[in-house]
Amino acid sequence: VRIARVTKVLPVVVRQIELVPTPKAVTIWLNDRKLGDYGPDLRQLSLPLGTAATVTFRNDACCFEKVVQIAARQQIQTLRVKLPWKPARLKVEVSPAVEADVQVGAVVTRAGQLAAVPIPAYSEDGEEEVDIKVSAAGYATVSRKVKVRANTVATQRVELKKLP
């Protein structure tokens, strides 16, 4: 005579955690296992209640990473993470084509060269307004504000006027 053993299967209680990274272009890792790129298919984590986890957010394009430890009993519904923004790059072209000094924020470069513009970590949209000043011998100095965006290359054209 065999006696069958009856086991009761308890349902696994899962906690849903919404992911909110800034910037959005990140890859999500869970316990050193790649889940994929953040997007419509990966906006939430499902973790069994009572399980600790390590969530890693990586911006592979700019080698930034943020690691978050979630304790087994930690009650968390939304996981907001801020990674540094990749700098914007700005090229200032002058007309007429003369040798000109270009000041982008605190950096001085030459006309036609790319200047890196850091984007502050507190920026919500990855944009920054920067002051530029263009000066060349025999021409009036031109100053203006330019809006740039993280991880993009922007070109600004400046018309120089000859001094009388």
Would you spell out the secondary-structure blueprint of this structure?
Elements: E1 14-22, E2 27-30, E3 33-37, E4 44-48, E5 53-59, E6 64-70, E7 78-82, E8 88-95, E9 101-104, E10 107-110, E11 114-117, E12 127-135, E13 142-149, E14 153-159
Parallel strand pairs: 1-7, 8-14
Antiparallel strand pairs: 1-4, 2-3, 2-5, 5-6, 8-11, 9-10, 9-12, 12-13
Question: What do you see in this structure?
Answer:
The chain has no helices and 14 strands. Strands 3-2-5-6 form a four-stranded antiparallel beta sheet, with no helix packed on it. It has strands spanning 14-22, 27-30, 33-37, 44-48, 53-59, 64-70, 78-82, 88-95, 101-104, 107-110, 114-117, 127-135, 142-149, 153-159. The protein has 164 residues and is mainly β. Helices cover 0% and strands 52% of the residues. The termini are far apart. The mean pLDDT is 89. A hairpin with a 2-residue loop joins strand 9 and strand 10.
Please name the defining characteristics of this protein.
0% helix; 164 residues; single chain; 52% strand; four-stranded antiparallel sheet; mainly beta
